[in-house]
């Protein structure tokens, strides 16, 4: 039998402490038949679709982010382009929303939860990047670079015509 000294005991405690930070939903998804433990799986896509629609909702004059399939863009960019730590932070945050029953809330309650997350993400007390900043910026990027966002959400002019350098400003919003 191996004798345990202080160094070995601290190593064992450190390993168990680190293991306690692993979200157990990832472990359970690995046991499912058709599991896909990333931001492109069905559960995360449903959640992201709700979030992006609250960030950029449908209006009378433009489609919403959900209609432009921005949730697919958010999941794909985070999954394929983000560093593992940043992507994992987003997954942990989205898991917390799922555990708290975000999808079962009313529209007003969902808006309030996301407003609180936005305030938390922009507070000075945060030293590490908040996952909601990533979701929000990816939503805006995805929407305003999508075909629906450009052609129906912005004032799209495929053939702009002549350049007129000195035109009086009439107070009209230029692109939004």
How would you explain this protein's 3D organization?
By secondary structure, the protein is an all-alpha fold. The protein has one domain (24-153). Helices cover 57% and strands 0% of the residues. The chain is built from 8 helices and no strands. It has helices at 6-19, 24-31, 42-55, 70-81, 84-99, 107-121, 131-144, 147-153. Helix 3 (42-55) crosses helix 7. The longest helix has 16 residues, at 84-99. Mean pLDDT is 82; it is low at 26-36.
Essential attributes:
176 residues, mainly alpha, elongated
Share in helix: 55-70%
**What Rg do the Cα atoms give?**
22 Å
Strand-residue fraction?
Answer: under 5%
- Which word captures the global form? elongated
Tally of distinct domains = 1
Secondary-structure topology with pairs:
Layout: H1 6-19, H2 24-31, H3 42-55, H4 70-81, H5 84-99, H6 107-121, H7 131-144, H8 147-153
Short account of what is shown:
The chain has helices at residues 6-19, 24-31, 42-55, 70-81, 84-99, 107-121, 131-144, 147-153. With 176 residues, it is mainly alpha-helical.
